[in-house]
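Supplementary Note 3. Input sequence used for the single-chain structure prediction.
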Amino acid sequence: MRSFVLPLFLVAIVCSPAAGQTATKISKGRAAVEAAYQYQNKLADSTVTIGQVIQNWSVVASTPDVQKDPDALAIAYGCEGLLEVQTGDLNKADSLLQKAMPLFRIRQSKSSFLVAYAEVERALKHNALAMKAYDEIVTTMDSVPALEKIEFYHLSGYAPYAYAIDAAYGIAQIAMVDSAERKPAITILTKAMDRHMADALGLMTVVALHELGAMSSEDYKFKVDLICSRKPELRDVWETFEKRIKSPAQ
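The predicted structure, written as discrete structure tokens, is reproduced below.
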């Protein structure tokens, strides 16, 4: 539901000591990643340049301790990739994020990077790869409680489902412009809808399926009313989703 430039503060979720490893068991590779993330934080006061931070992540990724820890290496590649998104070099970002994705072993570590990867693939019009990533998000990251703690998402009213809602939106946008991906899109969205008929993700999939012509107006109204009867607070969210799905793809 936003542009493909993922806010860099989200990486803090996966770079904290609590993400996947306890402080007493943290690996040397993970410690190196945390130090590199602290270095990246200096961007906030302009004491380093984005180029310096990118170079630092590249160096960190090449160290033996990080190379031995798949999740640490994935985060290093991923953080470098996100910074390349910020510089506008989507091809470099794509290369780095593609290297990162297979390395992740911890779901919490992977989540933010997978979201960014999917958006980069869609921006590059690598629709089949984007669809595969979106499918994984909708299926395995359909509720991420940690998002509720982030004001950026909390204010939306659908924080735990935000990643999957963005993915459902991306799926619909691809299906609208790529006929080869329309059938897979409808299949993914329908499965997600069937699992989430009492929450905001289900509402997003209903809106998307109706926009794709995969649901009659009568069925659409019934499903929207059903979800909103279960969660009345979603009526305003539905209006937001409807406006968004009809706007041009970003």
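Residues 1-14 have pLDDT under 50 and may be disordered. The chain is about 65% helix and 0% strand.
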